[in-house]
């Protein structure tokens, strides 16, 4: 009798027949919207088994497999879960690094809610581009409900360059353990740090050992009080490109200017993190200069991944928008205690950094120049069907204007206003991200064998950008959750 029961159990595990599988889910009566088949938006059904998609049926509804839990999609739209390929999970919006890492109860509440806030807005996968504390990644993954998370490990930063320049000289080298020496850009480095342990090969090896899927670099001369910073030489960048290729990883470069993107494109970066806010000597031109068009054509031809991250500047503008903190959308993604703190004098500590002594009314017009240039670049790339990869840069700085999940939704709204079609936005946040970051065997579309990361929406994302705020149900690896239960103010 025991042998017969054991044989039956083994057969069930091997074949996973519907009658025996406890975690079968049959989603029916939905319109399937998958980026690889945008020409076939039709009614269908999807079977989830063990956290994976095992059947995709298009056409008239079929009977549910025996033993499966049936989910009636009510004629809504089923899409792949969204991917945000530019987040920073260690930071608490509105708090300094020290505040966020202090163990403050508001920060702890934020970290518990953060994974749910990404899911609330449909982001079932996030990629952290610059890990400063692997403990944050571990804690994120231990939360009962959380998106899939991937990362680039510790960023490869040039000694005394961006972003380690924001820390004092006596702390920056310990805080940024993956810094690089570049003989072409000599800067002062404490004697305790040996050049042999900070080579490109050693830096990429650290990323690989930590499980990174990508390598992050920067070309940034600085801004505000941190200007004229050293930047990586072409020769050093070529070393990074070669080592990243050898490791089979994706090379992401922070580049937000014409100069920086020219450098990164010439060096064959896979992804440009940020849009082109700064055109240098061409800033004053009303139209898109031919020199910039020529560079953008290369970006299109090389299929370089492009992350406009338009919400970065809107995140700063939040400090001078009178009604921002009263927006009901914030209550869905931020614990009440932290949201209330934002309005206190202590919670406004970052505002002087944004306004630089100017009146609120004078700050917003000053941001229009970079936004105008960004929109022009996005519109041109959209017209050439560039390889947009969706990233929100959440949070981009210590601002409370870039909140998890919501920041991504607002990025989509800005991209659409700038000229990206709804299909381009949808593909950028699904299949383009998956392919560019080499995750497409697992994510990015509704196909058999892929992870069951899915969204049920009331509205099609190909009809209106507001569809991304119409999510009803979220599945992560087959685990189903009602959107309303993910909200920070859910009772």
From TrEMBL:
<protein>
    <submittedName>
        <fullName>Amidohydrolase family protein</fullName>
    </submittedName>
</protein>
<feature type="domain" description="Amidohydrolase-related">
    <location>
        <begin position="374"/>
        <end position="479"/>
    </location>
</feature>
<dbReference type="InterPro" id="IPR006680">
    <property type="entry name" value="Amidohydro-rel"/>
</dbReference>
<feature type="signal peptide">
    <location>
        <begin position="1"/>
        <end position="21"/>
    </location>
</feature>
<keyword id="KW-0732">Signal</keyword>
<dbReference type="InterPro" id="IPR011059">
    <property type="entry name" value="Metal-dep_hydrolase_composite"/>
</dbReference>
<dbReference type="InterPro" id="IPR051781">
    <property type="entry name" value="Metallo-dep_Hydrolase"/>
</dbReference>
<dbReference type="Pfam" id="PF01979">
    <property type="entry name" value="Amidohydro_1"/>
</dbReference>
<feature type="domain" description="Amidohydrolase-related">
    <location>
        <begin position="77"/>
        <end position="208"/>
    </location>
</feature>
<dbReference type="InterPro" id="IPR032466">
    <property type="entry name" value="Metal_Hydrolase"/>
</dbReference>
